[in-house]
Design goal:
single chain; 421 residues; BirA Bifunctional Protein, domain 2; Rossmann fold; 2 domains; 8-stranded mixed β-sheet; 17 helices; elongated; binds histidyl-adenosine monophosphate
């Protein structure tokens, strides 16, 4: 018998038991993105190495340590994409998408590759939902993009378990002076920092602020804040973004130490954080990248975007597995009841609740059996007599308790139950 071949370290199969959660997140993303006017683009999985070196930055950890780079048989250096932004913008330039009305709104879903040390929530092949809005500098776009991100997480029912960390990291007008100030400060307190921070302080000082080691925290907590060093334009831009988020009642936490691992960012940066996944606490990250399109040989179009780490989202959903399944089985008894329940199912699904609908042909007992096997917390029963009275029965599956609600209010009742999960 031959030895079984195993998958490569750091990559994983997504098994049938998990694919429903993946599909649900993907479907919610597509629905939310498309509703905001974003269109799908599917760039290739490998690109010329130079694209990432130039786009992400030669000195970043990603380019220096984490890329899957190889020479093909023609001797060309190619790289499996570590992220999608550079590829999407390359395609934007290459295909002249910039002639379209701006902002040009694009999204893409697929695998990314980084040679990182694998651990829970960190893989060498992982998947991102990636969204980009290109060609507009107005801070209203920053707020829109963040609102889309939050709506996605509301749609999958995770929004209230996450914190939006928000920062501005300035631009080429104000960041160099801050950088100098920071380097000076870090040098002064170098003895109190870990080896990695000391090395980074010279090479990529802003990234030092990202160090998670407890020993470094007191020094980093007292480091000069980028927010005090912003030029007038950047400070105004940031103030507007905050005002717009507040107008949409989107909570955020200003986090001056939030820096990101890419050289392309300017001004607004953000991450969506969870306390439930240990060290891998970011489920999404993004920011503005004015100047990047030009750096890639295109017009001087500004832009902003984000990427969501699918594995981390699915992990959060699995930690609460009964929340991932449908909320309710709607049980019509007969075709007239089915006709009445179709639009209710449609309406609640539109709002992100997952419900199953019977076809009115099975007996009540066998439908309730099915509800048990589906592990739905609720069944909604509409038989002939309920239909006549304009009512529905909501049955709580674990206790068997039933209550009557008017059919006209069923949609609202289901959404209230969905909100409580
Ligand atoms: P990023 O912060 O590197 O940003 O990645 C976004 C998300 O991808 C992270 O928050 C995390 O959830 C997930 N992720 C990253 N690395 C791994 C890994 N090794 N294993 C599992 N999940 C991972 C970007 O990639 C930018 N391109 C985002 C962006 C788009 N900025 C502007 N537009």
């Amino acid at each position: 018998m031959s030895v079984a071949i195993k998958a490569v370290r750091g990559v994983h199969d997504i098994l049938p038991a998990d694919t429903p959660r993946w599909q649900r997140v993907e479907a919610t993303a597509r629905r939310v993105f498309e509703a905001h006017g974003y269109h799908e683009i599917r760039p290739p999985i490998f690109e010329r190495t130079e694209l990432f070196a130039r786009g992400i930055g030669e000195l970043t950890d990603i380019v220096q340590k984490e890329m899957y780079t190889f020479e093909d048989k023609g001797g060309e250096s190619l790289t499996l994409r570590p992220e999608a932004t550079a590829s999407v913008l390359r395609a934007y330039v290459e295909h002249g998408l910039h002639v379209q009305p701006k902002p040009v709104r694009l999204y893409t879903i697929g695998p990314m590759f980084r040679y990182e040390r694998p651990q829970a929530g960190r893989y060498r092949q992982f998947h991102q939902l990636n969204l980009e809005a290109v060609g507009e500098v107005h801070p209203g776009l920053d707020a829109e993009v963040i609102a889309v991100l939050m709506e996605l997480f509301q749609g999958v029912g995770l929004a209230d378990r996450l914190t939006l960390a928000l920062n501005s990291i300035g631009d080429p007008a104000c960041r160099p002076a801050y950088r100098e100030k920071l380097v000076e400060y870090l040098r002064r307190r170098a003895a109190e920092l870990c080896q990695e921070c000391r090395e980074r302080a010279e090479r990529n000082p802003l990234r030092v602020l990202d160090c998670k080691k407890p020993g470094c925290q007191p020094v980093l907590d007292e480091a000069p804040s980028i927010l005090d060093a912003l030029c007038r334009e950047c400070a105004e831009h940031f103030a507007h973004v905050r005002r717009y988020l507040e107008a949409m009642a989107l909570p955020y936490r200003v986090t001056p130490r939030l820096v990101r691992g890419f050289d392309y960012y300017v001004r607004t940066t953000f991450e969506l954080l969870t306390g439930e996944l240990g060290a891998q606490n970011a489920v999404a990250g993004g920011g503005r990248y004015d100047g990047l399109v030009q750096l890639l040989g295109g017009p001087p179009d500004p832009g902003i975007g984000f990427a969501v780490g699918m594995e981390r989202v699915v992990l959060l959903l699995s930690s609460d597995s009964n929340k991932a399944g449908p909320l309710a089985l709607l049980i019509p008894l007969g075709d007239a009841a089915l006709l009445r329940l179709f639009p209710v199912a449609q309406a609640v699904r539109k709002q992100g609740a997952v419900v199953e609908l019977g076809y009115g042909v099975r007996r009540l007992r066998s439908e309730l059996d099915r509800a048990n096997r589906l592990k739905v917390p609720y069944a909604v029963i509409v038989g002939e007599s309920e239909l006549e009275k304009g009512e529905a029965l909501i049955r709580e599956m674990t206790s068997g308790a039933q209550r009557v609600v008017p059919l006209s209010r069923l949609e609202g009742e289901l959404m209230t139950l969905a909100g409580r999960r």
